[in-house]
Amino acid sequence: MYIYDGDGRLVKSILNQRVTYYPSPLFQLMVDGSSQQVSKRYSAGGQIIAARTVNGGQEGLNWLLDDPLGSAALSLSADGTPGAELRYTSFGETRASHRGFSTTRSAGSMQIQLPYLQRMQFYQQVWAIARQIPPGRVFTYGEIAQLLSLPEGIPFDQFIAFRARWVGSAMAACPADVPWQRVINAQGMISQRPGAEDQRRLLEAEGVTFDPRGRVDLKKFGWEGPEESNPPRLF
Questions:
Q1: Residue 196, SS3?
Q2: What's the CA dihedral at 187, 4, 166, 65 to 10 degrees?
Q3: For 182, which of 133, 167, 194, 203 could close a Cys bridge (C-beta 3.0–4.6 Å)?
Q4: SS3 state at 42
Q5: Is 140 a member of any domain?
Q6: Residue at 231 is within a domain
Q7: How confident is the model over 91-144, as pLDDT tens digits?
Q8: CB atoms within 10 A of CB 100
Q9: Strands 2-4 and 18-24, bridge-based pairing
Q10: Radius of gyration (Cα) for the chain, nearest Å?
Q11: How far apart are CA 59 and CA 22, in angstroms?
C-alpha cells in the first residue's frame, strides 16, 4: 500500500510487515518489526551525490556518481573504495559487473538483475506509477525511481546506485496497458535503443514536441507525479 500527501508526494509505504516513511525526497525511515533503518541522501546541483545509512549501531556513507539516466554509475565508500559499478555502451545497452547481483547476457549486452521476487515486486511498483502518466506528459526513469520503496534484502546504497536502471528494465518488460513511451531519461531525451523511433512517434502523436537536439522540455511536458486521489494500481 502506498500513501500520498495532498501534493502527490509519497509519504508512506506498507509492504508485508515493513513500513517505510518518506518525510522528504532525501530522507526515509524503514521500520521492520523491531529494527529500523534510516537513509539520508545528499544532493548538489540537482543530483544525488551521497547516501548515508544508519542501521542499529552500524553507519555507512557512500558517494554516488551519476549517469545520464539519473542513476549512479559508480558507488564509492566514504574512503573512496569502489563498491558498485555500472558501465554501458554509447547506445545505452548495459555492460556491467557488479558484486551482489546476478547478470544475464542478452543480445550482446549485460543486464544487472534483482533477485526474482524482489524484481517482480519492483516492476509492479514501476508499472503502477507509469500507468498514471497522462497523455502528453513525460516522466523520467529517475523520477519514478525516487517514488519506489527499497526492495527487501537489497542494501540501500546499491538500491540508490541502480534503481533508475532497474526502472528502465521494468519499462522494457511492461504489460501492454502501461504507456511506456511516456518514460524518458533525465536529459529529456529518448534513450537510443530498438524502439526509440516508435517512442518518439507515439509522444509526438500526443502533442509532445522535441527540440532540434531531440530533447523534450521537461518544464513544459514533465508530469508532476501521482496524486493522492489516484494511488498506484498494482494490477
A1: helix
A2: 50
A3: 133
A4: strand
A5: yes
A6: no
A7: 344 444 344 444 443 333 334 567 888 888 899 999 999 999 999 999 999 899
A8: 11
A9: unpaired
A10: 17
A11: 19
More confident residue, 101 or 219: 219
> 181 CB contacts (<8 Å, ≥6 apart)?
198, 199, 202, 203
86 with 161: CB under 8 angstroms? yes
Question: Cell for 186?
Answer: 533525465
Beta bridge partners of 24: 27
Parent domain of 71: 2-221
Whether 51 and 40 have beta carbons less than 8 Å apart is answered as: yes
Give me the mean pLDDT over the 192-215 stretch: 92
15-72: pLDDT as tens digits: 667 788 878 767 888 888 888 888 887 776 556 677 788 887 788 787 766 555 555 4
Interatomic CA distance for residues 94 and 168, integer angstroms: 11
Q: Is 227 part of a structural domain of the chain? A: no
Cβ–Cβ under 8 Å, residues 168 and 52: no
| Residue 176, number of CB atoms within 10 A of its CB | 5
* Residue 228 domain-assigned (yes or no): no
**Following DSSP, what letter does each residue of 104-145 receive, concatenated?**
EEETTEEEEE--HHHHHHHHHHHHHHHTTPPTT-BEEHHHHH
Contact (CB, 8 A) for 159 and 44: no
Reference 224, options 32, 1, 43, 6; nearest CA is 6
Nearest to 204 by CA among 220, 195, 216: 216
Q: What CATH code is carried by the domain that includes residue 121? A: 1.10.10.10
**Residues found in the chain:** 235
